[in-house]
Amino acid sequence: MSDTLVDYDDAVSRYDPALGLEVHVELGTATKMFCGCTTAFGAEPNTQTCPTCLGLPGSMPVANRTAVESAIRIGLALGCSISEDCRFARKNYFYPDMPKNFQTSQYDEPIAFDGFLDVDVPLEGGGTETVRVEIERAHMEEDTGKSLHVGTSGRIHGADYSLVDYNRAGIPLIEIVTRPVTGLGARAPEVARAYVAQLRDLIVALGVSDARMDQGSIRADVNLSLAPAGSGTLGTRTETKNVNSLRSVERAVRYEVGRHAAVLDAGEKVFQETRHWHEDTGITTAGREKSDADDYRYFPEPDLVPVAPSREWVEELRGTLPEPPNVRRARLQEAWGFSELEMRDTVGAGALDLIEQTVADGAAPQAARKWWLGELARRANDAGTELVDLAVTPADVARVQALVEEGTVNDKLARQVLEGVLAGEGTPDEVVAARGLAVVSDDGALSAAVDEAIAANPDVADKIRDGKVAAAGALIGAVMKQMKGQADAARVRELILEKLS
Amino acid sequence: MPETQQQISADEVAHLADLARIDLSAEERERLAPQLAVVLEYAASLDGVAGDDVPATSHPLPLRNVLREDVPQPSLTAEEALSGAPAVEQQRFEVPRILGDEQ
Ligand SMILES: [Zn+2]
């Protein structure tokens, strides 16, 4: 059964969307939240479990210090206050991916609260607009196991039985919850996307998670409600789960706006429920009726003592915060003199860190950009890999550029040097030596080639003698051909003009 | 006897049974309602002991910040982990088909 949808533009002209985002970040700690089991992605099923994360009787959890620190650092990076004393809580529900029959979480005492993220939302005509998204809370909890549904239809509801792998159960999660974001109008989907993108960048910059949406280490739930335009009220919300790419965040908001509008237009009430996002078809379908918090029968976790971060500890962690990614980007753009488009391409290609390091290794910013976004981006694309995974370091690229600038190689040869480095033939200097790529700077050999070219092209030589310097191009070409490209064209020109003056 | 008698309706019992994933007949719900009321009454008797000025205690000892370092410890083998499973397939716990959806 497909939903009736109102055209998006029509919907946002008559209704005000309110947006809320819950983002779960799986921390990149070595061990789980409450036990010493490892957390590596992709291990054989049920090889990373112990009595604690399997919820066996008598086992006792102990919180992971690094996970608590990561939670505090995320909170601080989001401008949150850090709780002086907070407890864990049990969230009770029966579902086979949670072997304890409760999830250890935090309820009314989150470790971080009352923050914000200033989100740079790209504008259509270029530039960005800053939208402040208020953070209600960030709290610590644990991930669930992974279910594999076995059955004929392949759908959860049609599955005959399920198979559960508890390797993921107990991996630390930080859930970051926004307050409702209103007043966005038609831009709600873009803001949702930009928020998740910027939060992801921040998490990566903090080094607390690899934040890979495709592997589920950062996951977004999208809350949406509509209220009649100008009413200033909040409507009934739905919570769309399983939104696992930035593009899907945008699409899911758009879809729910159209669906809610159709429900409200028909004079019906929006049903408060979770919705499942379907990446393939781009629609949401009804999930379970949203439980009240009461139904989870939260109560303080008796097996874990409260966490009371001292103010000294919090300040120490504040000192480890990186420069916010958007601030850093603006600073580098200014320092490098990149246009907005150049900067966007740089970020999009994942070349920001690489160029920064290449510049630190001595290359001019534009030269570094030229190599990474030109030749190397092409090679990464051909190999179906990311720039960062290429077998070439920023130091190599800086060295290649230095070789060009000191005249050891020209641009064409420099590309061959990079090819050699990528093929594992060694450093740029080793490749130049092994492949014999250096331009011939021996004036004797070059001079002979120039003489030969002059002798072979007497008409051109005469023109140059008559002052038609532009004609030198033909002779330079002949010499370069003779030298198989391994000559410095500027030096060749110099020699020609010397000889014919 | 406390002054206020706790009342639990058959509907509330049905809701609790649903949360606890227990299938109860109408007759069982009727029978359990007054029994649960007695349990609540018993717990409510604590209200008479502590006044509003006494905060609820979740931990009897004044301990804070018991944390462990992020250092891996040996896990169980898959065989050990699965030894208590009612059924195993593909090195995973086989469980009845899932009726609700993921949390
Ligand atoms: Zn464990």
Automatic annotation (TrEMBL), chain A:
As one GO molecular function, the record gives:
ATP binding
Q: Which InterPro entries match?
A: Asn/Gln-tRNA_amidoTrfase_suB/E (IPR017959), Asn/Gln-tRNA_Trfase_suB/E_cat (IPR006075), Asn/Gln_amidotransferase (IPR018027), Asn/Gln_tRNA_amidoTrase-B-like (IPR003789), GatB (IPR004413), GatB_Yqey_C_2 (IPR023168), Gln-tRNA_amidoTrfase_suB_CS (IPR017958), Gln_synth/guanido_kin_cat_dom (IPR014746)
Write down the Pfam families for this protein, in alphabetical order. GatB_N, GatB_Yqey
Q: Which residues form the Asn/Gln amidotransferase domain?
A: 353-500
Keyword Nucleotide-binding applies:
yes
The reaction(s) annotated as catalysed by this protein in its Swiss-Prot or TrEMBL entry are: L-glutamyl-tRNA(Gln) + L-glutamine + ATP + H2O = L-glutaminyl-tRNA(Gln) + L-glutamate + ADP + phosphate + H(+); L-aspartyl-tRNA(Asn) + L-glutamine + ATP + H2O = L-asparaginyl-tRNA(Asn) + L-glutamate + ADP + phosphate + 2 H(+)
Key words of the record = ATP-binding, Ligase, Nucleotide-binding, Protein biosynthesis
Keyword Transmembrane helix annotated: no
Function, as annotated:
Allows the formation of correctly charged Asn-tRNA(Asn) or Gln-tRNA(Gln) through the transamidation of misacylated Asp-tRNA(Asn) or Glu-tRNA(Gln) in organisms which lack either or both of asparaginyl-tRNA or glutaminyl-tRNA synthetases. The reaction takes place in the presence of glutamine and ATP through an activated phospho-Asp-tRNA(Asn) or phospho-Glu-tRNA(Gln).
Quote the subunit structure annotation: Heterotrimer of A, B and C subunits.
What is the name of the protein in this document?
Answer: Aspartyl/glutamyl-tRNA(Asn/Gln) amidotransferase subunit B
From TrEMBL, chain B:
Q: Which residues form a coiled coil?
A: none
Entries under Pfam families matching the protein: GatC
Matching entries from InterPro entries are given as: Asp/Glu-ADT_sf_sub_c, GatC
> What keywords are assigned to this protein?
ATP-binding, Ligase, Nucleotide-binding, Protein biosynthesis
Q: Which reaction does it catalyse?
A: L-aspartyl-tRNA(Asn) + L-glutamine + ATP + H2O = L-asparaginyl-tRNA(Asn) + L-glutamate + ADP + phosphate + 2 H(+); L-glutamyl-tRNA(Gln) + L-glutamine + ATP + H2O = L-glutaminyl-tRNA(Gln) + L-glutamate + ADP + phosphate + H(+)
GO BP terms in the entry: glutaminyl-tRNAGln biosynthesis via transamidation; regulation of translational fidelity; translation
Q: Name one GO molecular function term.
A: glutaminyl-tRNA synthase (glutamine-hydrolyzing) activity
EC number(s) reported in the record: 6.3.5.-
- For whether the record's keyword set contains Transcription, the answer is no
Record keyword Protein biosynthesis present: yes
Q: State how it assembles.
A: Heterotrimer of A, B and C subunits.
NCBIfam families the UniProt entry points to? gatC
Q: What does this protein do?
A: Allows the formation of correctly charged Asn-tRNA(Asn) or Gln-tRNA(Gln) through the transamidation of misacylated Asp-tRNA(Asn) or Glu-tRNA(Gln) in organisms which lack either or both of asparaginyl-tRNA or glutaminyl-tRNA synthetases. The reaction takes place in the presence of glutamine and ATP through an activated phospho-Asp-tRNA(Asn) or phospho-Glu-tRNA(Gln).
Question: In which family does this protein belong, per the annotation?
Answer: Belongs to the GatC family.
- Protein name as it appears in the record: Aspartyl/glutamyl-tRNA(Asn/Gln) amidotransferase subunit C
Q: Which gene encodes it?
A: gatC
